[in-house]
Specification:
The structure is a single chain. This protein is mostly beta strands. The chain has one domain. The protein has no helices and seven strands. 1% of the residues are buried.
Length: 136
């Protein structure tokens, strides 16, 4: 495709904090644990510079002149910022010495602080899973 950028500066940062706890309610038979995580991330591209502007773009047999005029030298071509947090609660029960049951519930929340290409991408998710284990 053409339009290779000769210069740009890309920065990305993600900071995550985890806090967890667990307890043995009945030693060797029943335990519970909880985990909380918080992430804040940013990413952006600065100072784009395209020297092969304009160029011819060919897509599926159609040819058009294409120009990066409006983004050349942009200070914030890509400006992303999000906050994500998750909470997980799990329990393990040993029914016998060989058979156990695990149940895990997780809630995740994603908050898009800076709308960009696809608009606002906020969302949340709840999952519940269970496992049966057999020790041999």
């Amino acid at each position: 495709m053409g339009g290779q950028s000769d210069s740009y500066e890309y920065e990305t940062e993600a900071h995550t904090v985890y806090v967890g706890a667990n307890a043995n309610l009945i030693p060797k038979r029943w335990d519970v644990s909880a985990l909380y995580s918080f992430t804040k991330g940013t990413a952006n591209i600065h100072d784009l510079g395209f020297t092969s502007d304009p160029f011819v773009l060919s897509v599926q047999g159609r040819t058009d002149d294409y120009s990066f005029t409006y983004i050349n030298g942009s200070n914030e071509y890509s400006d992303l910022e999000y906050i994500m947090w998750e909470f997980e609660l799990s329990t393990n029960v040993s029914i016998t010495d060989q058979v156990g049951l695990t149940v895990v519930g997780r809630y995740s929340d994603y908050n898009d602080q800076e709308e960009y290409v696809y608009g606002e991408l906020d969302g949340s998710l709840f999952t519940l899973s269970g496992f049966v284990t057999y020790r041999f």
